[in-house]
Specification:
By secondary structure, the protein is of the alpha/beta class. It is built from six helices and seven strands, in the order βαβαβαβαβααββ.
Amino acid sequence: VTTNLMGAYKPLDYFKWAKEMDIVSWDCYPSYNTPWSEVALTHDLMRGLKDKPFLLMEQTPSQQNWQPYNSLKKPGQMRAQSYQSIAHGADSVLFFQLRQSVGGCEKFHGAVISHAGTENTRVFREVSALGAELKSLGDEILGAENRSQVGIIFDWENYWALEASVGPTRDLRYFEEIKYYYTYFYENNISVDLIPTDADFSKYKLVLAPVLYLTKKE
């Protein structure tokens, strides 16, 4: 049992959802200007939901259609993003969509098989090449663990409570604070786990709790 989650989606406490899921899967759709550190953070958050590998359920091989500005991925970018997801705990690299719709609201969303309807496109060749590379790896890295010595607490109830409060400043945003701390470790090539408040802290040398102003009795 799974469902495709959406990173740091604010309305739902994914740590609670993960308890009811056999495996975590999610849709990775960064904007054209999303920092790679933020993409890595969301991969780590998805891995942290069950402290296990996850499935990359959706990504586009070329461009999206529903953001304000939808740029075509540069040559090699899809491959790099796919390997980034694997490095951060993905056991799969899947795409939406296989064949580009000819009608409907997602007709401009990219696909492995574009409106051209042939394999003679750069995107098709890049997906095929990635598939061949992953096939050559076999099952060697499936189920691989990411062992981090740093944990950053991500708590949805704090997310809600902080942003539903009045003050102290409109500039204090929960996810932005998490990203601020995470980026330091990303830029210094230090692996990080995103963990809940009830995680086992003993395996970490350092645990950070950004803006954890709401605490529970236990």
